[in-house]
Every structure is written in C-alpha cells, then in structure tokens.
Amino acid sequence: MKAGDLLPRTICDIPMLLFRDKDGHATAIKDACSHRLAPLSAGVYQDGEVMCRYHGLRFGKGGKCVHNPHGQITDALSVRSWATVERHDLIWLWMGDIKAADDSLIPDLSFIDRTPAHGKFTGYLPTKANFELCTDNILDLTHTDYLHPDTLGGGGLTRAKEKVKVEGNIVTVRWENPNEVAPPALDRELDRPGSLANTFTEVVWYPPAVMKLCVHVEPVDPLNGSPVESVTMHIMTPEGAMKTHYFVLSTRNFRTDDPGYNEALGKFVNNIFATEDKPMLEAQQARMGTGDLWACNPALLPIDNAAVRARRILAHMIEKENNGEAA
C-alpha cells in the first residue's frame, strides 16, 4: 500500500479503509463517515488524511476527525479505528479492543525479510468461501495430487501419509517422500530433472488462519545439485461468513536474482490458485450453503486430521474469548 492509496476492505463483515497517515504508518478506520455514513473510500486522500467527499470532514490517524468545515470538532465525529502493525511485508490488524492489541502473537516470519526482492512474489485471491474451508485446503495437501497433478502434485503426498503434531495452539502437518522424483514444479529446478530426491512438505498453522507451507527437495545424489526450497504463506482473512480474502506470499532459495523469472513464476502459481483451487473452494461452498462445515455432517478421512485439529483449537479459542478468558 503506497502513500496516497485508499484501500477499502471488508473484514468480518465490517467495512474498513486502510491508508497511510502523515508519518507513513498504515491506519485502519471504519469506512463510514461519522456524519452521514458516506463511504470514506469514496473520498479524497490529502497529506495523510481522508476527506469525506459528501460534506468535507477530514479524518486522520486513529480515526480522529481533524477538520470540520461546518463547526467545531467533537469526539463524536471520530470514527472507529483498529490497531495495525507492519511486519514481514504484511499489514496485520487487531480486530478487538486496541488497548488489548498484542503484536507478540504475530508469528515469526523473518525468512520473508531475508529473501531478496526478486526471490518472492505475492498474490491476492478474493474467494467466495468460508475462511476455514480455505484453511482446510492447505492443511490437507493431498488434494494437490488430484487438483494439480501436473504442477504441484504428482501422487507423492497421498503415498506419504501425513504426520500431525500439536504444540499449544499451533498445528504442524508433515509429509515425507524419500527416494522419489520431486513434484513437477520443483523437479524442473534441479540440475538433473527426473532424478531421485528426498522431499519433505510441511505446513504450520497459526491461529486464526496463517499458514506457512514449506517444500524442501534434496537430490539423493549430491552431484545432482543443491537442495531447492520454497516457503509460501497462505493467509485467510474472513470478509464475511462465506467470503475470504486469500493472501499469498511465496519465497524460494533458487533463482532469486532473476526478475523476469520471478514475475513469470508468480503468474504461473497464482494462475493455478485462481483456476483450480478457487473454483473448487467456491463450488464446495455453494454446495454447503453455509459457513458451518459441521452442520453438513461431512464424512471425515484420516487426511482431515490436521484441519480438524485446527478447527477445534480455533473454536476453543473463540469460546474462551467470548467468555472473557485469555485464549
């Protein structure tokens, strides 16, 4: 988000507006003027402030009204705001009470900061599906063997059988494929494509819906080249009960100084998500007709282990929060 941008987002059914204040910091306020509820995203950005295009009131950092052309400024003219932190190329929002905001809950994703500019790309996929349904898609990667057989899959994850570990509120699921040809997307990056490699795939889930997906491929024969690895963040932000802001940030340890390759890879991967994952998730959601998976009484398989654990942890955290307890 650049200075001067007005970025509207609906999160948890709340219309918000993000912009940069006079100090260049990201600010998130309600996208509705306190006077007549006109959308501030339809307004004008002026030196770190937003002017409502309807009657000219201006708002700045923290949602404070800083200019009222029709009289004095009162506290009633302020609009709601949310705490924000910029870290790891991302803007993080605290949806609750600003005074309770705790940025120590943000996962350590410093690998993003260490990755060269041309060794990472981003993606944004607005998806008409519940955010937990989108989360399930990453926590059960066996779907890649069938939905993406020629690119991200190849059959290995179905053969591997996942191992799930829970530590506190963090769920980790891992698949190991020794002495096999790597998945097509990474196999082609080896010095000798088609040669045997040891591949491990791991997803770490942080509540409520932040996932780090690592694929590491190491040739069995060291003469076949160095290991290649990709680490991709999949972050699901609920727009509403059945709509999700799906954010992707992908890094890698190979060809990190080639801007042309980076752009092409970003288009390739984002196209896979847009033309394969997104339609499937939206079709699922349409069949369900509700954001509540359990109301549909699904038949569960062993491959659902990690997703179910994550759902249960999140439900428990929400219950404790609703009861006024620390999650």
Automatic annotation (TrEMBL):
Highest taxon above the source species: Bacteria
One family name in Pfam for this protein: Rieske
Positions of the Rieske domain: 1-93
Molecular-function GO term, any one: metal ion binding
InterPro entries, sorted: Cholesterol_7-desaturase, Rieske_2Fe-2S, Rieske_2Fe-2S_sf, VanA_C_cat
Protein keywords: 2Fe-2S, Iron, Iron-sulfur, Metal-binding, Oxidoreductase
UniProt KW Hydrolase keyword: no
SUPFAM superfamilies: Bet v1-like (SSF55961), ISP domain (SSF50022)
UniProt-recorded name of the protein: Rieske domain-containing protein
Source organism of this protein record: Sphingobium quisquiliarum P25
